[in-house]
What does this fold into?
Amino acid sequence: MPQPNILIFMTDHQRADTALPQHPAITPRLTQLVNEGISFNNTYCPTPHCCPSRATFFTGLYPSMHGVWNNITNQQALSRGLNDGVRLWSEDLAEAGYDMHYAGKWHVSVTESPKDRGWTEHGVTSAAGTMHGWTWEQYRELAQQPEQTERKEGEILRPGYPPLRLYQSTGEEGYDHDEGVIQSALEALDDIENTTDPWCLYVGLLGPHDPYDVPQRYLDMYDIDKIPLPVNFADNLEDKPRIYKRMRDTRFGQFSDDEMRQAIRHFWAFCSYIDDLFGQVLDRIDEMGQTDNTLIIFCSDHGDYCGEHGLFAKGIPCFNGAYHVPLVMRHPDLVQGQRRSVDEFVSLADLAPTMLDVAGLSSDRHFAGASLLPFMQGETPDKWRDAMFTQCNGVEIYYTQRSVKTKDYKYVFNGFDMDELYDLKSDPHEMRNVAENPQYQEIKRDLCRKMWQFAYEQNDEYVLNPYMTVALAPYGPAEAFRDDD
It folds into this structure.
C-alpha cells in the first residue's frame, strides 16, 4: 500500500480512562475513533512531565538516552534539550519525502524548534528561546501587594507564592492557546490539500492541563451531583513517601469535597471541549477526501491524578493516573478490524519505531520501544514486554525515582524516602504499600532485578553511584546480572 498520511493529535495531561467509551467524560469524536479503530489500553509515559515524555515520543528513547529529564524552559532545568546525536522520527519521514507540518506545543528543546527537525511550523509554542517560571523581581513585586488571606473557590493559597487556581469557567470564551492551535492546524491542512506527497500533521494542545479553564457550555454537560470522588480519594498516605502527603495536605487539602468534585467536573468538561476541537480537524480531513488514507493517532504526553489519593495535576507521586495515557489509532487498511483493543503494555517510546514502520522505513538505531504495527494488523509480536518502567529525577525539585510495573505488582524505588510496593491483584488502586511486608521480599527483589536490567539496557547511569549516602536501593545494580532463577 502507498505511504499513509499521518495525523497526530496530542493533548497535555489527559488521563487514559477518559478515552474509554464507558467513562463519564462525554467525547463523541474520540469514542467514534475508538469504535472504528484500535485502542492501546495499557499505554504509559516514561515520566509524568511534558518535556521528557514528548522527547520520548519523538525519539523512541527514555530520558537516560535522549537527555531531557524535566522542564527545559525554566531555571531548574537539568538540560536544555536533546543529547547530541539523538534523532527524531520526523527527520526520517522528511527525508523520505513526507510533507511535514507542526502546529502547537513543542516543549522538547529550547535550543531547537520543529523546523530544525524536519517540520514546517504553524503557530508553534514552547519552542526555541522559550523561558517560563518566576524571577526574583516578580516575587519582589508580589511582596509589595496586600497579602491575600481569603481563599476563593478552586484556589490554593500559598504564602509567599502567587495564589494557584485549579479550575474556573471561562464563560463563553474558548481557550486561546488551543483555539489558535486548531486554526493553525486547519491552515496547515489548507496547504496540504493539493500536495501529491504523503503528509504528516502534528497538532499539540495544552488542554486539559491545569488550570482547568473551560467554557461554561461544556460544564453544563455534567451534573455536579453525579460526580463521584475516586475510590482511593480517602487514602491517608501514611504509608507513602512524605512528599506525597505534604503535597496533598498543604495544597489540595485546602479544598472541600465539593471543590474536589468541581475540579473533576472541570477536567471532564475540558476533555469534552478538546473533543470538539479534535472533531474540527477530523471534519476538515474528511472534507479533503483523505480520511481513508490517513492514519489518525490520538494520544497524550502524561496523565493527571484527578482527585486520586486527594491529588491533582502530576509530579513525584508515582501513581497510575499520572503515567497512564490514552492511545487510539484508526486507518482502514493499516488497522485491521474495528473496535479492537490491546491490553499488552505499550510505551510512548513505541511511537517512533511505529512511525518508521507504517511509512515503510527502517533504521538500525537503538529504540527503547518497538513497533505497534503488528498489533494494528491483528498480530501479537513474539516476546512482547511483560513490564513497564519509569525514569524520573524529579520535576523542579529533584528526586531519584524509578519504578517497574507488571500485571500483578508495582515497585517504586524512591531514593529520597521509603520505597513502595503494591499488590495490584488485590489492591489495583494503590492504597496499601507492602514494601516492608516480609511476605513480599522475594517479589521486591525480583522487581528490583527487572528495574536494574532495564537501567542497564537504557544506559541509565544516574542511579549507579555506590557511595554510602546515595546507594539506598534494597537490592543494588548487580542484581541486573544475577540469574533469574
The domain at 5-376 is CATH 3.40.720.10 (Alkaline Phosphatase, subunit A). The first strand starts at residue 5 and ends at 11. The chain has a mean pLDDT of 96.
